[in-house]
Amino acid sequence: MDCQVGILSIYTRDAKDAFLGRAAKVLSHARAVGMTIIHVQVGFRPGLPEVSARNALFGAVKTSEQHQQLFRAPLGSIPDIIAPRGDEIVITKHRVSAFAGTDLSMILRANDIDTLILYGIATSGVVLSTLVEAADADYRLAIIGDCCADLDLELHNQLLQRFFPTRGLVLLSDSFIDVPLKKNEEG
User: Fold this and answer.
1) CA dist 14 to 11, 39, 152, Å?
2) Is the whole-model pTM more than 0.90?
C-alpha cells in the first residue's frame, strides 16, 4: 500500500533498494501460490476535488504544488520491481485507509477473500488505518513488518511490536515466504 516512487524515496531513503527487494520477494511468493494481489496507491484528480481544506493531512497537499508532485507520474507511480502485473487489481485511494471511499470491500467480498496480508508506507498511516478497519470487519490479518516503513522509527516499532499483534500476525518477509499457504488464503 502506497509504495510509490516519491513516497518510497522519503520514507525509506538509503534503504529503498533493500525495502523494494523484500517487497518484491513477498509479491513473487504471493503470485507463485496464486494469491489475489491488490495494489493500493494514493492519488488525486487534477485540482484535488476529493480533498477538503478541513483535512489536515491532505489539505496541506492541496495547497502545495510540490507535495502534489508526489502523487503524479513519475513520482506517483509504483516502481517496476513491485508494479502490478497482468490483471492484478489497483485501488486508488484519496484518504489514509485503503477502505475509505474505495471499492476495496466490494472486491474482497466478491472474491470471497477473508484474509489480508498487509504491508506499506507509512506504518502509522495506511497500514494502521487499513489494519484497524479490516480488523473491525472481521478479516484475518497478517502484516509483513519489514515491508513497512515510517518516518518515526519509535512509533513504527511500537505499532509492529505492541499494537499490530493485537489485531493480526506480524511476520518478517522471509517468514511469510516460508509459511505454506493454501490458495484460498489470499490477501
Assistant:
1) 9, 24, 15
2) yes
What H or E segment, with its residue span, contains residue 30? helix 16-32
Instruction: Report the first-to-last Cα separation within the chain, whole angstroms.
Output: 12
Max CA pair span of the chain: 47
Listed in order, strand segments (DSSP E) in the chain are 38-42, 89-93, 115-121, 140-149, 169-171
Q: Which residues contact 155 (CB under 8 A, 6 or more apart)?
A: 123, 124
Residues 114, 117, 119, 123: is their CA dihedral positive or negative?
Answer: positive
CA distances from 50 to 42, 45, 59 (A): 12, 8, 10
As beta bridge partners, residue 169 has 142
The Cα angle at residue 65 between residues 60 and 70, in degrees rounded to 5: 85
pLDDT of 181: 58
